[in-house]
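Reopening this ticket.

The earlier resolution said the output was attached, but the attachment link was broken on my side. Pasting everything inline this time so it's all in one place.
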Amino acid sequence: MAKTRTSPKTAVAPPTPPAAQPERFVCVHGHFYQPPRENPWLETVEVQDSAAPYHDWNDRITAECYAPNGASRITDRENKIIRIMNNYARMSFNFGATLLSWLSDFAPRTYRMILDADRSSRLRHAGHGSAIAQNYNHIIMPLANERDARTQIRWGIADFEHRFGRKPEGMWLAETAASRWVLDLMAQEGIKFTILAPHQCARVRPIPQNPGDLAPAPETSIAPSAPAPGSGPVSASGAWTDTPDASVDTTHPYLVRLDQGRSIAVFFYNGPNSRAIAFEGLLNSGEEFGRRLLSGFPLEPNSEPAWLSHVATDGESYGHHHRHGEMALSYTMHWLEDKQHLKVTNYAAFLSRFPPRWEAEIVEDTSWSCAHGVERWRSNCGCNSGGHPGWEQQWRAPLRQALDTLRDAIAPLAEKLSQSIFKDLWAARDAYIRVILDRSRPSTDAFFAQHATHVLSASERVTALELMELQRHAQLMYTSCGWFFDEVSGIETVQVIAYAARVLQLAGRLFGSLGAALEADFLRTLAAAQSNIPEISNGAEAYRRYVTPMKIELEQVGAHYAISSIFRSYPEQGELFCYNVRRLSHQVFTSGRGRVALGRACIESRITEESEEICFAVLHLGDQNLSAAVRRYDSSDPEQVETFEKFSTDVAIAMRRANLPEVIRLIDHLFGSMGYSLLSLFADEQHRILQTILTRTLNEMEDSLRKIYEDHASLLDFLTDTGMPPPPALAVAANYAINSSLRRAIEADPFDAEPVLSLIQRAGSEHITLDAQQFNYLAGQRMKRAMVQLEAAVSGDDSASIALTNAVIIAETLIQLPFEINLWQAQNIWNDLLRRSDKTYWTEQWIEDFRRLGEVMNIHVDQLVTEEGVSAF
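Inline output:
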């Protein structure tokens, strides 16, 4: 049944009677986002050494920001924890969809904190959650074509609904880059509001009081509330007032009228206060942060029913850019509510109570981080990171031109090829987000059932999925980070070029020779993107140097599987990155230090469903001396089966005779050559295997240095007593021996406190410099492991008491390290155990030991119990 349309006269909410003293609200918005870092061919983030000791920068920033904001601390004057807060439940926030995808896979506890926070905020704010959506992969929307912009909005909404279980009321635009037509697309999809910078407001006026002057608003519009006469900086006559120099009043929302009666609300954030958070050290003090938010209110009452002091910054300000910034945020919100009696809210809740009484027009094609509009993402406008004086960004225009040309060239080719597969290519693309979110066979089948022209064969399914992946990577290659920084060969720019390379690879498969022509055109344009680094020269060289080696086919996946099978056991069926691997056969022959692995496997992409059988041979002569050969294999061809079986038998005989030259000859005869080595492994496995190979050498070095140290320990003690510095060689041996021994002692299982304490004492007395960063990480992980074991053991039997005693011993030992250690995850588990409703296993001894554990981990137990209202002791 069609819904009855609201008449123009009733589309406007009645005026809100002005209060003598406006209600005051505070809202802090965090834009949490990281550039996508996944290898486009593996769909995973590979190891990044610059993020050490963490695996990659997502991992590191999660530890410094995303996770701490889910369980942030408020401390007393002695720096003991008195309250643990989920900041996300008190603030307004958006997370990039690609970042949330990573968090759900690699940081599930943090991911749950984010989802729990939105549910909690909905309870606090009459159903209005604190989370808002984001255009899918952070492209600069005014620079997109309309079709791509619509897909970005629809994918962002679908991703949000999938994760948060509700429709989003608001949407964050990448870099707050906006234009009127983009806002109109958002309104068409049901988005009620967005957040922009104050300088993006062009002019404002009170909403006309006569409802007949208003155009009809659709059901998704925000019903404006007519202001009282004389409210705001101008009269209620309806005259527009320009807002130069970001002079817009940011304490209330504005209505922006769009096409065909649509509208959207805009909150212009407080610019000076937001800049102070990001760049002026405001997070050094939670109370000062709170007072700055108080300054966002007008000095004198006016006819507005409510005021909103609100700020918007990168969410990474709270913990990553500013250490312990999440604690300043927690304290601020606690201080404002408890001491200032203000209401901390979110945008959706505020908008539901106080619809816009003013309307605004925005400045077209503007953003929050470029003084020249959106030029930072298409020209050498002068905006840069400031880290490389003298560098220019002339490369930005050719990069965008290369991508635009590629996008526009593949569109008609894809449309033509799709006619026999999809009912509507672009409708299928918009719906493909459901497959991206759930790659299971039933999900893919449901997608094809809705959008395919007929029941697809296996080969047609591959073609259809490759068409969709072509479109997905054509979206990803516009991720804004590719233009934000200073150099065409920087990691963020290389990332978007890699997405383009994946588009080109898929185009080659789908469109044949036309794909090669597309790549030639792409590189020709990219060659005009001049690098600031002489040896790089231009974007085309960056492509060849950094992106071409990333490209893989199924054979390279098979080579990785074959080589790593020498060092690890794979199940008969398993996953390798975004591929399924089914082992058909595998044999290993050993002769002295030499080993040969022979086998067959089927490799299948979980993304495109393409598959290939391979056979392989790997020869390992010890350490890094490894060679491998891989070729396609057809198990349905009797001749190939017979040939490989005879080859396997001949290799087995040669290995029994320790005839390695014969083994090499046999491999060369069947495969042609051994074209793969350890360098052919993908980064993570390469690091793991090299570490395995190095372990024996490193152990020998450690044993030698430890022996030198132990043999001369008494001499070193004597030199220390006399104040005479030890010779450099002995000092190096002592430093290395103490650090390596302490590392082993901390990681040992079962844990023994005595050697750890002895080594800490010796390091102090002999002035040994301990690696603070390494031990901070190791100690934190060791304490977390103890708490995880405790969490698993709390079943009421003796093992729980043993695990608790062990956790207390480890904590009391590790806090003796001469620097702060990261107990954040261990403290969270302690707090979770405190909050558990089942406490049947809590004996008097348990309570005493559990209290002791909390105090050792810097928790003010009694105060925290009081603050949280938890019945425990």
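Reporter confirms the inline version is readable. Residues 554-679 form one domain. Confidence is low (pLDDT under 50) at residues 1-15, 211-221, 226-236.
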